[in-house]
Design goal:
The chain folds into 2 domains: 189 residues, no CATH class; 173 residues, Rossmann fold. It is 41% helix and 13% strand. The chain is built from 17 helices and 13 strands. The strands form 2 sheets. Strands 1, 2, 3, 4, 5, 6 and 7 form a 7-stranded parallel β-sheet that branches. A 6-stranded parallel β-sheet has the order 10-9-8-11-12-13, sandwiched between helices. Helix 4 packs parallel to helix 5. The two termini are 24 Å apart. Keywords: Transferase. It comes from Azotobacter beijerinckii. This is Polysaccharide pyruvyl transferase. Pfam families: PS_pyruv_trans.
Length: 379
């Protein structure tokens, strides 16, 4: 069976030649999307062709036998995927979904899922390659969100496919070995300038990274942040730039902020390039789960500052080190990192092996061939 990605491409080709608006759109308005698209493609042998969801059914069918849908936090009142459900009604190829999650303020909430999104899920489940579950969920919270609608039976819990990028069977041990209680080179997974309730925390992260040396500020979304990461702060409106400056470093003047962003802010349009860059750091910290995951996959200790149900669920499912952002909203300092980085390498590796087995079985049950390194992780 010939698989293909039904969703975003893992890499934005020729990104340097494209405008930031174009690259941002091609990345699905968050460059973190490229991380799990890269992970899914790698788990299936790499170099998979891709086509976007809104392509006509005949074009989708022409791509191959099984469309592997790159999913995200699409369960909740924040999005109605009725527009995506209709094209699938005419698709003849088989479908498998990976990475579906629910979005809520906390794990105690029950997300309301629009009927259009439910239709989208039904259309996917009806096109399973066999009788086994064909949608992999991010965690039990997301799976429970579907139970209310009678759609959980055709799903399994996997976490995020980014957990399985590295072939290192003892990845947890590698991470623990590299942990330095006084890191001298820190990268920040940048937040969102409209998360003003976390601005004091973000200020402290930037101060901490700057005090240890060069430091990096890796931007994923929204567009204004990605512009900062491409050295385009001077092209932004003063209003937009001030919103970013107030969130990141309110003590800086406008000129100093522009200079700072050119030196420290980065945006990536390839997960491979992102990982190659981040492996030089001692520690990675911030509110973006995929930024943390890419660091962990190259053995760099990372701490996710979980700010919603989505990030908490993923961290708990994969045993990724995390702290609830609300608990440290007043800010952190360098000497707090050893206590905050609560990481058990043995449990992490045991859990990763267990989830890898689930992943391999899931793929094989859906007539997909796992890459040899993934099968080795599951042994």
């Amino acid at each position: 069976m010939k698989p293909f990605l039904l969703g975003l491409s893992p890499t934005i080709e020729n990104s340097a030649l494209l405008s930031t608006e174009t690259t941002y759109r091609l990345a699905g308005e968050n460059t973190g999307n490229l991380a799990f698209c890269h992970a899914i493609s790698r788990a299936l042998g790499g170099d998979l062709n891709s086509i976007l969801w809104d392509a006509p059914a005949p074009q989708i069918d022409a791509m191959g036998d099984i469309g592997v849908i790159t999913m995200a936090n699409q369960l909740g009142s924040h999005v109605d995927l009725g527009w995506a459900a209709k094209p699938l009604q005419d698709v003849k190829c088989k479908l498998v979904g990976i990475g579906l999650g629910a979005q809520a303020g906390s794990l105690q909430e029950e997300p309301e899922i629009p009927e259009g999104t439910l239709d989208w899920i039904r259309n996917i489940q009806e096109r399973a390659p066999g009788s086994h579950p064909n949608i992999a969920m991010r965690g039990e919270f997301s799976q429970r969100a579907l139970e209310r609608y009678g759609l959980a039976d055709r799903t399994i819990v996997l976490g995020c496919p980014t957990l399985f990028i590295s072939p290192d069977k003892k990845l947890g041990k590698t991470i623990a070995t590299r942990f330095n209680k006084t890191p001298s080179n820190i990268a920040i997974t940048a937040g969102h300038q409209r998360w003003t309730h976390l601005s004091t925390l973000e200020n402290s992260l930037v101060e901490m990274a700057s005090s240890t040396g060069g430091g990096a500020y890796i931007c994923q979304s929204p567009l204004e942040m990605v512009m900062l990461g491409r050295g385009e702060a001077s092209l932004m409106s003063l209003e937009s730039r001030n919103a970013c400056r107030n969130y990141i470093a309110p003590h800086m003047s406008d000129d100093d902020f522009v200079t700072w962003s050119i030196r420290h802010a980065h945006s990536f349009f390839s997960a491979a390039s992102w990982m190659e860059y981040v492996r030089r750091f001692d520690f990675v910290i911030g509110t973006r789960i995929h930024g943390a995951m890419l660091a962990l996959q190259v053995g760099v200790p990372a701490l996710c500052l979980a700010h919603d149900s989505r990030t908490v669920e993923l961290c708990q499912t994969m045993l990724v080190p995390y702290v609830r952002a609300q608990d440290i909203a007043s800010g952190i300092t360098l000497d707090m990192l050893p206590d905050l980085f609560n990481f058990d390498p043995e449990l992490f590796d045991q859990n990763r092996t267990k989830l890898a087995k689930t992943y391999v079985n899931f793929l094989q049950n859906n007539q997909l061939t796992p890459a040899p390194y993934l099968k080795a992780l599951a042994e």
